[in-house]
């Protein structure tokens, strides 16, 4: 099966001269030789001597299967980079393809430039071999330590979305992305092919996917390799691509096919871009993609101990084991490695032959040295308008009600206006639901698929839109990561419960940041990954239980303190201040939790900015302890929870006017941790000054209560900290009813105070009965009449 | 665009008589009328009076957009169920389609049978209307409370995989599954179409997907609605289906098209099954699927306030708001609801007209009453061989080394052999990697795609295989959930780090179980969801940092204590006992953490069974405190961590023979929680008896250390519990090196003891220096020579 384009290519006159083909093949052999060397050798790197057991590593680790296919792709991309002076990066999707990438980094000198001990000579080659899969050194994925990489691929599924993220607003860039046919079975990858409906050929670059069909995963064939060629072609046409198939195993024929196909694809990309840019008319193109069918473990041992290895899953990892003890195995490896004829590839000192060196691009055109793959180098700080200009003016605390996210939308609108080529907002069809719709005034949503006349009435979609919406959290998160890793800025906003869909992506990005920031010095800082969580657990009036899960924060806090930040701004003004801070920061994951419903505003802009900068503080206007030691500390973190905690204080102030209450609000959750655990952590002295050393603390928390204990269990007063939060009780409920079920409501909080402050058991007994009555009344009211969502927010705030 | 099949169908003579079409349309109108009533009315349910503001609910909540399309599908499925006596269930993929399903449950009487107050009369109809989206009552998804549902759909993406899970080993069953075109954009859904390569027409049932292309999500068009019809057809052909398109909006024409198409699909399914079953030759068929293009909010208001509503995203939720205050809006709703002509549908008492009642299937043929959707009713306990027969015989603790999962594989092999139609094992291409390959002796992996001759050499795939492997955690988890929900049994096993890919699926299944178990009495218990986590954080010698994340347990513990269980068997015999227990249990999520590498076996089978039944206990053979109060408690949870803790004790026993050490091992992690928090929790008295009230406790834990604090922070001795665990430090490391980096190794644990036991600071000073030296030596050794994975596991266990 060949696509029409492919037949046309095959019929054309040959693309490669005999000499060019010979050189490309030699370069490819050099790559493959290095890959094998990385897996096997700890000595005798140039095979100057016959291989002996002591030349082999003690422990053989690594993955061969995907390597030769990927090196094949790389050398052919090199050819077109040089021929057309392309600005291209490479993303390696298959799980364990690092040797393919590292070998090329080494051959084109980038590796030696960064890691001088891996010099391009015999000693350096040996260092390279030894470092691979050696404890603490080179991993078998394209880790942050690998130059040219923005995609590690330890977990599978995100290569295509990362590639698209890289080329948005990079009109000159081509991201070539190798997709393993194993990876292609994952859900995130399967939908990410649709990213082509969001790529504008005028202002964006291009993605050239190469589906590497080597046919096998760890121990199974791949699905796509075992459907009919017609189905495969239909599938990719259905996804909106123009597939080009390169299939075979005989190197000479394959070089010619691949060279002509890659060249045809590049020309097709250029033609699409030129046409769109000249006409200034971005019709959705059918971008080219390549399906490369080549054997797994290509050019490796064909058979070992009577079992097929090449072109079979047995070549996935180390294709021949026990080489130290099994002479036949040793012979197979030697024969295999010598089949690349290293003496033709490297001189006696281990340097790549000059005629081969000439095949690689130079300087920043090398895929291993392209600055887009070290995006911090290209990053320019955002132009950010003064967030104070978007403040909600306020006479007194709680005198206004505003949707925090709706107000934020105005700020983000102008952030976008000021950064029309370097800032994007990402959401799974939820920007408007999360009340950020004001941003559409700066730019509509990107939409390269069909637009109908009725869309003019409020749909806000256009080919040159900059707001990214697709109903795939995976794709959005992947796009944003790719966008950030190449030096730009953005925010992902999503429903709280469903941010768990990208838990694993968060884990992987956090791990990447951790290594890149703390261990890989040549990587420049990139913009933080900003995740805005809205449509919170506490306001799921008609969505119910499935939409109630605040546990993402638990997950976040498992990752390194050096790169994680959690903010729970209590109101609209605080959200502005937090957002401004996060947009300026680098190398963090900032998680912002903010509801979309109208909420009371407590702090004017100046007070909010100060409060957020401190991250935690006493709200004196809500407290009654003056400068005294309080009887009780009421603390809160989260907008809805702060409202209820304040309402509880209002009740207590009215009914128990002598009670000394201190009100503490936490914006920056990590302030609670000891300073020894997190850079934002308060010293014990400062913590004690806020929370006392021995007074009861009622802490009303947005999420699962345990997180507050996790952060505070080493504090002096921990045993007195009583945390309320979501305890997995819910249904479709009114907000007050849900709060009551989880005991985060004003009435239960007031009862908590009465129960815990010594001496109140008697004097507060009457109030407690009244509070219990309020709880019953509220539930009854909800159960008979339903409740308008607004009415529960009001309370009587005592004057003076 | 129409498929060939469709043209053929259209050309055939009419499927519906005029009368049948009239009746079907009336039934459909009755459904739609009820849907609208659920969203709007609190009085006047039969519109006997003109609508007045007080007839409307105070708060309008619900989703109209998807309802009329889904009711349309349901009534047409009813027709073929009756015509062909089909055994069919219905899965509602779109997020908020509950009114469509509930209205049908009500009309076919199931609803009234279960919830008598929702009787089929005027009062019952009013109760139904009032209950919908009312606090604490009927949600807008197909929650566990909805009869006939096994798929809630609050989170999107899993409808197709659930449907496939339902029909595996149910040769007679057809699962019709409505996929929203919004949901179709998610990654999990996008790859789940490939499930057709795992469905064997001989022994499995069939899935009939109906892609409901109503064109819009919350606020955007859907991607699939805005690509060309040719692309759409190519896509589904590429996925291996035969698509049939039904498109239009004029009800009469649509009824005819849908009737003929659904009938054609059913006949096609039957033909495929008959052919395969007769020939006993399961070639992969191209199963039929339907693409239904109908307007969003079909038959609803066309326009409101000058904005298009029908066939646009504006009909997603409540299509007309402010009906109490806006007379024009009230008029629109009245006109719309009366357009269904309720007086023709219901008699004056509110009962569905008899001629319409006859249209629904009866008894268990009703999709709302099909027993497969209440799988616990059909569930039969597994036939389980005696796990003791698979024991590792043992002379003394630590005298053998066995891979726990490899040994488990033998047990699972025979579990499978004994339950060849009701048990399956699911894994993302990792069963063999996780060493469970012995199960292939009972049955190979299911594979309906192409099989090549070379597969005979060890690939273990066959059309009638029962082990499910595809590189999509989402699809596997979805299949298993569907399989369990319909009354069968299974295990999902996956790499520890990547179980996070299904975090959100776990959350949703746990929430389903929580409600189904505790609140929905008519649902019978289903088999527990068993998740076996292997390839653990501590043994990622060549995979490195990306593969190190034990945080799934944190997520698990956020869900209800009534349905969550976590087991960390320390060795192969304990794993057998735990697995046996989990396979017998119902209505839990059981998470089992067990490594695949060879580990020491500590307990013989009898001791293991007792230890696991207790879930926690003192290992006296490892302790030196006799019956005395110990100087220190060394505790462990997890196989690798237990080994290091024991090794630390061995060192201490040798060097500090007078030190009284108590060794406690925890299998059932929830034993640590107070009994007030979890049914498995120890009483404080029992906890104190194990961990003392005041002695130092060194706890070596498999996961992030916090979880132990979370479970124990209310215990008497909590301030003395010192937890070691993974603290996010890693790379490609030798096991000992990784342990040392995270301080869970024997040397650091011994130092912990010296540091924390009063009086050892001096007497243990010399040992501490030696231990530090060991740490440095170990790191140096790893950094110079690398280390074979085995050598660190040995230690000298003092005799006597």
UniProtKB/TrEMBL annotation, chains A, B:
EC?
4.1.2.-
Gene Ontology molecular function terms on file: aldehyde-lyase activity
Top enzyme class, one word, equals lyase
Domain Xylulose 5-phosphate/Fructose 6-phosphate phosphoketolase C-terminal per the UniProt entry, residue ranges:
596-797
UniProt keyword annotations, A-Z: Lyase, Thiamine pyrophosphate
By its UniProt entry, which Gene3D superfamilies does this protein fall under? 3.40.50.920, 3.40.50.970
| Residue stretches making up the Xylulose 5-phosphate/Fructose 6-phosphate phosphoketolase N-terminal domain | 17-377
**What cofactor does this one take?**
thiamine diphosphate
Q: Name one Pfam family in it.
A: XFP_C
Picking any one GO biological process from the record gives: carbohydrate metabolic process
Could you tell me which HAMAP family the record lists for this protein?
Phosphoketolase (MF_01403)
Tell me which PANTHER family the record gives.
PHOSPHOKETOLASE-RELATED (PTHR31273)
**Homology family:** Belongs to the XFP family.
What's the protein here called? Answer: Probable phosphoketolase
Q: Which organism is it from?
A: Eoetvoesiella caeni
Taxonomy, top ranks, is: Bacteria, Pseudomonadati, Pseudomonadota, Betaproteobacteria, Burkholderiales
């Amino acid at each position: 099966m060949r696509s029409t384009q492919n037949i046309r290519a095959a019929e054309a006159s040959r693309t490669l001269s005999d000499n060019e083909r010979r050189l490309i093949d030699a370069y490819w052999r050099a790559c493959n030789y290095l890959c094998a060397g990385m897996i096997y050798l700890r000595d005798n790197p140039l095979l100057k001597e016959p291989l002996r057991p002591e030349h082999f590593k003690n422990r053989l680790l690594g993955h061969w299967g995907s390597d030769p296919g990927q090196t094949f792709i790389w050398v052919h991309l090199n050819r077109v980079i040089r021929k057309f002076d392309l600005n291209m990066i490479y993303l390696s999707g298959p799980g364990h393809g690092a040797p393919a990438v590292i070998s090329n980094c080494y051959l084109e000198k980038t590796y030696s430039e960064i890691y001088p001990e891996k010099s391009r000579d015999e000693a350096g080659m040996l260092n390279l071999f030894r470092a691979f899969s050696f404890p603490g050194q080179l991993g078998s994925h394209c880790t942050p330590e690998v130059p040219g990489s923005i995609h590690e691929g330890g977990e599978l599924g995100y290569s295509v979305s990362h590639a698209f993220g890289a080329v948005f607003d990079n009109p000159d860039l081509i991201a070539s992305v190798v997709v393993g046919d194993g990876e292609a079975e994952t859900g995130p990858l399967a939908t990410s092919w649709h990213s082509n409906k969001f790529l504008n050929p005028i202002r964006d670059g291009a993605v050239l996917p190469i589906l590497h069909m080597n046919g096998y995963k760890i121990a199974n064939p791949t699905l796509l390799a075992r459907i009919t060629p017609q189905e495969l072609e239909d599938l990719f046409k259905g996804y909106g691509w123009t597939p080009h198939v390169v299939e075979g195993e005989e190197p000479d024929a394959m070089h010619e096919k691949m060279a002509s196909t890659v060249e045809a694809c590049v020309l097709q990309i250029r033609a699409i871009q030129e046409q769109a840019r000249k006409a200034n008319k971005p019709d959705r193109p059918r971008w080219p993609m390549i399906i490369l069918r080549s054997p797994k473990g290509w050019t490796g041992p064909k058979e070992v101990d009577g079992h097929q290895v090449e072109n079979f899953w047995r070549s996935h990892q180390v294709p021949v084991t026990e080489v130290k003890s099994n002479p036949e195995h040793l012979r197979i490896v030697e024969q295999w490695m010598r089949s690349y004829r290293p003496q033709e590839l490297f001189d006696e000192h281990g340097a790549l032959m000059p005629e081969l060196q000439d095949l690689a691009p130079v300087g920043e055109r090398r895929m291993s040295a392209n600055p887009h793959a070290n995006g911090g180098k290209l990053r320019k700080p955002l132009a950010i308008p003064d967030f104070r200009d978007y403040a909600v003016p306020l006479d007194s605390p709680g005198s206004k009600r505003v949707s925090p996210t709706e107000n934020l939308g105005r700020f983000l609108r102008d952030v976008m206006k000021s950064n029309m080529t370097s800032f994007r907002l990402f959401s799974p069809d939820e920007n408007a639901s999360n009340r950020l719709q004001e941003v559409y005034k700066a730019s509509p949503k990107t939409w390269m698929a069909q637009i109908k006349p009725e869309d003019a009435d409020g749909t806000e979609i256009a080919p040159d839109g900059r707001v990214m919406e697709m109903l795939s959290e995976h794709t959005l998160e992947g796009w944003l990561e790719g966008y950030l890793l190449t030096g730009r800025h953005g925010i992902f906003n999503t429903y709280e419960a469903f941010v768990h869909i990208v838990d694993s992506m968060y884990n992987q990005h956090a791990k990447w940041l951790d290594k890149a920031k703390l261990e890989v010095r040549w990587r420049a800082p990139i913009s933080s990954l900003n995740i805005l969580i809205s449509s919170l657990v506490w306001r799921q009036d008609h969505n119910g239980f499935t939409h109630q899960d605040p546990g993402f924060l638990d997950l976040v806090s498992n990752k390194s303190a050096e790169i994680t930040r959690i903010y729970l701004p209590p109101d609209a003004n605080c959200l502005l201040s937090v957002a401004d801070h996060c947009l300026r920061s680098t190398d963090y994951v900032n998680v912002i939790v903010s509801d979309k419903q109208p909420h009371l505003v407590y702090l004017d802009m100046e007070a909010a900015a100060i409060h957020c900068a401190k991250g935690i503080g006493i709200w004196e206007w809500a407290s009654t302890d003056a400068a005294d030691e309080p009887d009780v500390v009421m603390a809160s973190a989260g907008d809805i929870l702060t409202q209820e905690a304040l309402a509880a204080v209002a009740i207590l102030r009215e009914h128990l006017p002598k009670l000394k209450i201190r009100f503490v609000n936490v914006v920056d959750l990590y302030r609670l941790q000891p300073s020894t655990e997190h850079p934002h952590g308060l010293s014990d002295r400062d913590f004690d000054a806020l929370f006392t050393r021995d007074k009861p603390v009622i802490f009303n928390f947005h999420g699962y209560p345990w997180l507050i204990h996790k952060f505070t269990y080493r504090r002096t007063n921990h045993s007195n900290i009583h945390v309320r939060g979501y305890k997995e009780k819910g249904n479709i409920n009114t907000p007050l009813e849900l709060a009551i079920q989880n005991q985060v409501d004003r009435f239960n909080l007031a009862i908590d105070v009465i129960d815990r402050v010594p001496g109140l058991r008697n004097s507060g007994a009457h109030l407690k009965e009244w509070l219990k009555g309020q709880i019953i009344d509220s539930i009854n009211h909800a159960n008979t009449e339903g409740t308008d969502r607004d009415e529960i927010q009001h309370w009587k705030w005592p004057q003076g």
